[in-house]
From TrEMBL:
This is XdhC Rossmann domain-containing protein. InterPro entries: MoCofactor_Util/Proc, XdhC_Rossmann_dom. Residues 21-137 form the XdhC Rossmann domain. Transmembrane segments: none annotated. Pfam families: XdhC_C. It comes from the Bacteria. It comes from Nocardioides zhouii. Coiled coil: none annotated.
């Protein structure tokens, strides 16, 4: 008698929000490739100001890949006020501190802002950093911490 083998994946697609990536750079392009590979819809906006299409919806993830963009505060303000389920910025805590302080002074709730974006994988290459960001987005979309599977 043959037992049916259980597979660890699902064949049916799972609907998830889009990943909106702002400012075209090597990390942003790597996020787009990795996120597309895991089945996410990615919109890469090269304009620093969020471009004409930044309209985060429920379930979307917004990743600002350039904390020095001229309109970074406006982009983050809009994303944090939206129904996006994940809002992040690529920056060290030290470099982002001034921007976060500016938003807090305006009364913006930054408690859900992921800065720096991603999990602490230790990678420094654009693809490695992007992998950590996409891993965090996927983990959060399933209500998981993203820790190791082993017990």
């Amino acid at each position: 008698m043959s037992e049916r083998r259980e597979q660890p994946w699902r064949d049916e697609p799972v609907q998830r929000g889009r990943i909106l990536v702002l400012t075209d750079n090597p990390i942003a392009r790597s996020i787009a490739v990795i996120a597309s590979t895991v089945g996410r819809t990615v919109l890469l906006e090269s304009a620093d100001d969020g471009g004409p299409g930044l309209d985060a919806r429920a379930g979307d993830a917004v990743v600002l890949c350039d904390h020095d963009a001229p309109d970074a505060p406006a982009v983050l303000r809009a994303a944090l006020a939206s129904e996006a389920s994940y809002v992040a910025m690529m920056a060290s805590r030290r470099r982002a501190a001034g921007l976060v302080e500016e938003l807090e002074a305006e009364g913006v709730d930054v408690s859900t802002l992921h800065v720096p974006a991603g999990h602490d994988l230790g990678g420094k290459a654009p693809g490695e950093i992007a992998l950590s960001v996409v891993a965090e987005i996927v983990a959060e979309s399933y209500g998981r911490s993203g820790g190791a599977m082993r017990g």
